[in-house]
């Protein structure tokens, strides 16, 4: 019998006083007399890593989240010792480490406190699992707000919330439900007009408490692993988000067709049904680029097979769909059916690729095929094998994309709906239990899928979509928000989730338009389409259990609204593609909540509905039934009403009238918005002129347009076109200067410039210092002109 109660339960333990410290280039180590070591590493002047161990040594330093291809560097690092603390100073911040208890406080370079430990780092020994529950608590400043954390279905501002990170198959989830499919342990704090970020890189089950339990305390903890977090200093939210995205990685540019409209259902089968659906899109002239096949395309739900009954000739079918502009995307789940006659199962069994329980047998669970085993995607050998399985699907049959579902991992008919904790994983040579590997299982599956699709799609670009993800998954895959519901509440949730995911580094995300579970009304579907076309990933998807959910399922009025807004998305493809280019190259989020756009305006801190699409389009969805208008907030600046061209001064709340076929959309004054003609699918038409909608501003504004071949990798060799437009509006003159980079030659040679809000009648036009006759331009007819695309400077003079 154990009678030593101290041994039975020690409670929370804390670092004691520092007894020594040492510096090794960019890292400083602090040792306490109770065996705690704190390692502080300066990655950038505004990016610092804090890593703690309680055992006197560090385990192998390994992370799936960190992009190892990204470079870091700092300008200044000074370490000094004072009587009560050590101070580490960079050119942006300084950090103090208290000698008596290892507590941290971080200040900006002017000495303003940004983040301070409350209890600071502490831990609780967990004898059941043999490790520590690691904890951190920070002081929450007056008026502090919190953002981020991925796909949480709750208010954009997390103040007063407690959230949990454990990838979970949460069918028909509801508002404020925890946890969901994705794990992004990264948040942004904002107080006194200064922003910072924390990324707690720990794949165990984690929790974040934003002043929920204690009013002025923010805390986060994990059920195992290390206290290992990264601190980002702004002071702008944009600095924090960009640096986090740089740390965890950016995707490669997707093919443009992936930015079109997609149609999906569980499930479209047989082939005749697929052809009926795609034919109806073309008949109704609703643009669509992709059709999805769910699990029923397989033979008995076996991955990498085709149903001989439903799809007897998949190669022919996929080719015929492609001829009509449809790219075929198929589902692949992690559960491999236990079947001695199934070649995928045989290969994995022979090579010992399945996850095992702690005492030896393979992990077995029930999913769609019945009893299954599950590949260990944390083993690089297994990922290589899995990638090779895509050869037939991609290079022979011609499938263009793959979506990974059920990869939380989801298992039916068991408590917790996932693997038991004792399942073992390779974890890239760092063997561990499922407690550690659970949250990254889906990401590693998506990574292996990405590597396979990329290999066999070459020289085209791959397209992957995943349901479950951990920080860094954006390097390999897009995502959707899982099994939502056809309800007005879920329309609100979808709007929040997309903004939050964009701020959390995972921009290429969308929701199931119309809701996956249950059946939307025509009004709800129309309002969802109107929002969904402004999300980076745009797909209607439904369970099929509650009725039809194609755009023509709701009558002529909804057909017309769907066509109108999907056509608008296709017109805005060059704008959307440019958004992606900025995200891929600079880490700039594609959707920007108002607080991101103007953090100094307190009125933006609790706004949830309005967001900036790209840099210059403000979108505010209609989220309630029977609404022909709504109140909304216009941020700083002047904005053009997209539908009326009325200019409205920002930084105020106002009522905006709408119709059923409209939502409030505003264009930033001075913007130059690029547009393509409407196409039924990407590549249907050769673009013969680029439309530029120019919104006059008294003052200056910069706009960019990025273009390339829309697929393939030539853009990496300089074969791209990047145009930067500098607009300068005066009372009687409008000047547009163009700067070009790249060697890509567009198919068009002309710009059609549509002038919006010009306050004067044009009397003279000069292009590159040459006067152009007005009768050649028809300028004062419809206020547009067509000019050569390679101009350097355009002057419109009143």
Automatic annotation (TrEMBL):
<feature type="domain" description="DUF5110">
    <location>
        <begin position="689"/>
        <end position="756"/>
    </location>
</feature>
<feature type="domain" description="Glycoside hydrolase family 31 TIM barrel">
    <location>
        <begin position="251"/>
        <end position="579"/>
    </location>
</feature>
<dbReference type="Pfam" id="PF17137">
    <property type="entry name" value="DUF5110"/>
</dbReference>
<dbReference type="InterPro" id="IPR013780">
    <property type="entry name" value="Glyco_hydro_b"/>
</dbReference>
<protein>
    <submittedName>
        <fullName>Glycoside hydrolase family 31 protein</fullName>
    </submittedName>
</protein>
<dbReference type="InterPro" id="IPR017853">
    <property type="entry name" value="GH"/>
</dbReference>
<keyword id="KW-0326">Glycosidase</keyword>
<dbReference type="InterPro" id="IPR033403">
    <property type="entry name" value="DUF5110"/>
</dbReference>
<feature type="domain" description="Glycosyl hydrolase family 31 C-terminal">
    <location>
        <begin position="587"/>
        <end position="673"/>
    </location>
</feature>
<dbReference type="InterPro" id="IPR011013">
    <property type="entry name" value="Gal_mutarotase_sf_dom"/>
</dbReference>
<comment type="similarity">
    <text>Belongs to the glycosyl hydrolase 31 family.</text>
</comment>
<dbReference type="InterPro" id="IPR025887">
    <property type="entry name" value="Glyco_hydro_31_N_dom"/>
</dbReference>
<dbReference type="Pfam" id="PF21365">
    <property type="entry name" value="Glyco_hydro_31_3rd"/>
</dbReference>
<dbReference type="InterPro" id="IPR048395">
    <property type="entry name" value="Glyco_hydro_31_C"/>
</dbReference>
<dbReference type="Pfam" id="PF01055">
    <property type="entry name" value="Glyco_hydro_31_2nd"/>
</dbReference>
<dbReference type="InterPro" id="IPR030458">
    <property type="entry name" value="Glyco_hydro_31_AS"/>
</dbReference>
<feature type="domain" description="Glycoside hydrolase family 31 N-terminal">
    <location>
        <begin position="38"/>
        <end position="209"/>
    </location>
</feature>
<dbReference type="InterPro" id="IPR000322">
    <property type="entry name" value="Glyco_hydro_31_TIM"/>
</dbReference>
<keyword id="KW-0378">Hydrolase</keyword>
<dbReference type="GO" id="GO:0016787">
    <property type="term" value="F:hydrolase activity"/>
</dbReference>
<dbReference type="Pfam" id="PF13802">
    <property type="entry name" value="Gal_mutarotas_2"/>
</dbReference>
């Amino acid at each position: 019998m154990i009678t030593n109660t101290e041994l039975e339960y020690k409670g929370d333990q804390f670092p004691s006083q520092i007894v020594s410290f040492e510096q090794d280039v960019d890292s400083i180590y602090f040792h306490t007399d109770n065996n705690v070591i704190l390692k502080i590493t300066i990655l950038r002047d505004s990016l610092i890593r804090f890593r703690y161990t309680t055992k006197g040594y560090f385990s192998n330093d390994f992370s799936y989240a960190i992009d190892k291809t990204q470079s870091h560097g700092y300008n200044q690092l000074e370490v000094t010792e004072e009587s009560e603390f050590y101070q580490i100073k960079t050119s942006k911040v300084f950090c103090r480490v208290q000698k008596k208890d290892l507590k941290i406080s971080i200040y900006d370079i002017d000495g303003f406190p940004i983040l301070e430990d409350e209890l600071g780092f502490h831990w609780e020994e967990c004898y059941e699992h043999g490790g520590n529950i690691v904890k951190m608590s920070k002081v929450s400043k007056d008026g502090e707000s919190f953002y981020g954390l991925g796909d949480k279905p709750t208010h954009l501002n997390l103040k007063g919330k407690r959230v949990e990170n454990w990838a979970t198959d949460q069918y028909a989830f509801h508002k404020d439900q925890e946890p969901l499919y994705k794990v992004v342990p990264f948040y942004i704090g904002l107080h006194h007009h200064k922003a910072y970020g924390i990324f707690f890189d720990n794949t165990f089950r984690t929790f974040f408490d934003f002043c929920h339990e204690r009013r002025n305390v923010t805390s986060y903890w994990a059920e195992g692993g290390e206290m290992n977090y990264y601190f980002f200093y702004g002071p702008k939210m944009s600095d924090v988000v960009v640096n986090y995205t740089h740390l965890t990685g950016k995707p490669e540019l997707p093919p443009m067709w992936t930015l079109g409209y997609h149609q999906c259902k569980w499930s479209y089968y047989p082939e005749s049904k697929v052809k009926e659906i795609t034919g109806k899109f073309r008949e109704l002239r609703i643009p669509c680029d992709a059709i999805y096949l769910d699990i029923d395309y397989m033979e008995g739900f076996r991955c990498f097979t085709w149903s001989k009954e439903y799809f007897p000739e998949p190669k022919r079918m996929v080719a015929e769909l492609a001829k009509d502009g449809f790219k075929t995307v198929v589902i692949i789940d992690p559960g491999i059916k236990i079947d001695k006659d199934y070649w995928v199962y045989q290969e994995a069994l022979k090579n010992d690729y399945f996850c095992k329980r702690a005492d030896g047998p393979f992990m077995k669970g029930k999913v769609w095929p019945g009893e299954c085993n599950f590949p260990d995607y944390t083993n690089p050998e297994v990922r290589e094998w899995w990638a090779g399985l895509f050869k037939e699907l991609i290079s022979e049959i011609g499938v263009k994309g793959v979506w990974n579902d059920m990869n939380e991992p989801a298992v039916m008919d068991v408590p917790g709906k996932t693997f038991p904790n004792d399942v073992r994983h390779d974890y890239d040579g760092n063997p561990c239990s499922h407690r550690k590997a659970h949250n990254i299982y889906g990401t590693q599956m998506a990574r292996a899928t990405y590597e396979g699709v990329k290999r066999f799609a070459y020289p085209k670009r791959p397209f992957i979509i995943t349901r479950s993800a951990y920080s860094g998954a954006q390097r390999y895959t897009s995502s959707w928000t899982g099994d939502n519901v056809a309800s007005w509440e879920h329309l609100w949730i979808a709007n929040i989730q997309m903004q939050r995911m964009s701020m959390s580094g995972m921009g290429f995300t969308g929701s199931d338009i119309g809701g996956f579970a249950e059946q939307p009304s025509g009004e709800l579907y129309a309002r969802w389409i109107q929002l969904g076309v402004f999300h980076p990933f745009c797909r209607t998807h439904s369970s099929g259990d509650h009725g039809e959910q194609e755009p023509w399922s709701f009558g002529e009025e909804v057909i017309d609204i769907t066509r109108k807004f999907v056509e608008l998305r296709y017109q805005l493809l060059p704008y959307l593609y440019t958004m992606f280019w900025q995200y891929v190259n600079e880490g700039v989020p594609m959707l920007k909540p108002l607080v991101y756009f103007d953090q100094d305006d307190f009125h933006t801190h609790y706004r949830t509905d309005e967001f900036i699409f790209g840099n210059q389009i403000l979108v505010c969805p209609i989220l309630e039934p029977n609404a022909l208008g709504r109140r909304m907030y216009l941020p700083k600046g002047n904005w053009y009403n997209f539908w009326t061209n009325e200019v409205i001064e920002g930084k105020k709340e106002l009522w905006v009238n709408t119709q059923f076929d409209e939502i409030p959309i505003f264009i930033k004054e001075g913007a130059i918005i690029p547009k393509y003609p409407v196409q039924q699918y990407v590549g249907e038409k050769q673009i013969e002129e680029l439309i530029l909608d120019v919104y006059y501003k008294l003052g200056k504004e910069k706009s960019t347009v990025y273009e390339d071949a829309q697929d393939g990798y030539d853009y990496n060799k300089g074969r791209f076109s990047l145009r930067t437009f500098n607009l300068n509006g005066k009372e009687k003159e409008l000047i547009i200067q163009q700067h070009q980079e790249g060697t890509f030659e567009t198919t068009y040679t002309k710009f059609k410039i549509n002038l919006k809000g010009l306050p004067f009648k044009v009397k003279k036009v000069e292009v590159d210092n040459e006067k152009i006759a007005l009768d050649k331009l028809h300028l004062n007819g419809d206020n547009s002109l067509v000019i050569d695309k390679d101009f350097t400077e355009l002057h419109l003079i009143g």
